[in-house]
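quick one, 175 residues, struct below
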Amino acid sequence: GIIGRAPDAGAAGVIIPMVNSVDEAQRAASACHYWPTGTRSFGPIALGARGGFAGIEAANEQVLCIPMIETREAVEQIDDILGVPGISAVYIGPADLSITYGLRPGMDQADEEWNAAIAKVVASCVAHDVIAGVHSAAPLAAKRGEQGFRMITVASDLGSVAAGAQIPVCSCSYT
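---
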């Protein structure tokens, strides 16, 4: 139910963390889509308030279902996960992926096995015509683009707000 609330509120898609198996990918895709392709509950109240609902068929075509690939288990099953109808993209969480490869959490690793996992996910995305996405940082964006990622996050809301909080809003002095 929680997955359907985001598109009901107007989100173009949903990123679903820790999708590690075909069964979990199927449940995620089903929760994003209305019948006959899914099990999403009809409740687009917010969309209706903003000008109407385009229809179930349009919603099923437009919603983005984006499972996160964050574990060794998910990498091992990536071809099967990407074979699930309704998956628009995948999004690698590199810190969690690092942990499952026995590494310290990080955005990038020198480890050959970890890098092979990244390459495997991108290659599978190309083979299945699914967008490869990754959580990243600005200094790594060019590298991730060269690796074949088509969706690269370089900042987060929290990071941007925290950085903004460090900048004085006004350097006014009152006498």
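The chain has a mean pLDDT of 87.
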